[in-house]
UniProtKB/TrEMBL annotation:
<dbReference type="InterPro" id="IPR011605">
    <property type="entry name" value="NusB_fam"/>
</dbReference>
<comment type="function">
    <text>Involved in transcription antitermination. Required for transcription of ribosomal RNA (rRNA) genes. Binds specifically to the boxA antiterminator sequence of the ribosomal RNA (rrn) operons.</text>
</comment>
<dbReference type="InterPro" id="IPR035926">
    <property type="entry name" value="NusB-like_sf"/>
</dbReference>
<comment type="similarity">
    <text>Belongs to the NusB family.</text>
</comment>
<protein>
    <recommendedName>
        <fullName>Transcription antitermination protein NusB</fullName>
    </recommendedName>
</protein>
<dbReference type="Pfam" id="PF01029">
    <property type="entry name" value="NusB"/>
</dbReference>
<feature type="domain" description="NusB/RsmB/TIM44">
    <location>
        <begin position="7"/>
        <end position="134"/>
    </location>
</feature>
<dbReference type="InterPro" id="IPR006027">
    <property type="entry name" value="NusB_RsmB_TIM44"/>
</dbReference>
<keyword id="KW-0804">Transcription</keyword>
<keyword id="KW-0889">Transcription antitermination</keyword>
<keyword id="KW-0805">Transcription regulation</keyword>
<keyword id="KW-0694">RNA-binding</keyword>
């Protein structure tokens, strides 16, 4: 079973969302559930999935610090919808730490995740935050 990078990002989002709700969950078991819902065979976990999930978790405080300046003064990270925050963390991680993903691709993929897992307002919000961040090139 070979996943596209977009599908891997979707699974990474789902894993991070689940881990946000249950930080003590076993990552490997969670990956297996996401990759193989029927649980009939154990699948090899794509390395990029591990890279994204582990990277976002390890760098979460730094990623949050990078995101915060691009929120309006009336917004804080704890006011954001969890879906939006996780999508932004994934995008900022790719922008900051993944050299082979062009900025445009990271931004577009985040917008696609917002389309898939949130609503139109969230898509516009994610697009606006990432647009400002890439324009300022501080990430």
């Amino acid at each position: 079973m070979s996943l596209t990078r977009h599908e891997i990002r979707e699974k990474a989002f789902q894993a991070l969302f689940a881990l946000n709700a249950n930080p003590d969950a076993d990552e490997n078991q969670l990956f297996q559930q996401l990759l193989n819902p029927d649980n009939d065979v154990e699948l090899e976990i794509p390395s990029y999935l591990s890279t994204l999930v582990t990277g976002v978790l390890e760098h979460q405080a730094a990623l949050d610090a990078q995101i915060q300046p691009y929120l309006s003064q009336t917004w804080s990270l704890d006011r954001l919808a969890k879906t939006d925050l996780i999508i932004l963390r994934l995008a900022f991680f790719e922008l900051q730490y993944v050299d082979d993903v062009p900025d445009k691709v990271a931004v577009n993929e985040a917008i696609e995740l917002a389309k898939d897992f949130s609503d139109d307002r969230s898509r516009k919000f994610v697009s606006g935050v990432l647009g400002k961040a890439v324009k300022h090139e501080t990430i």
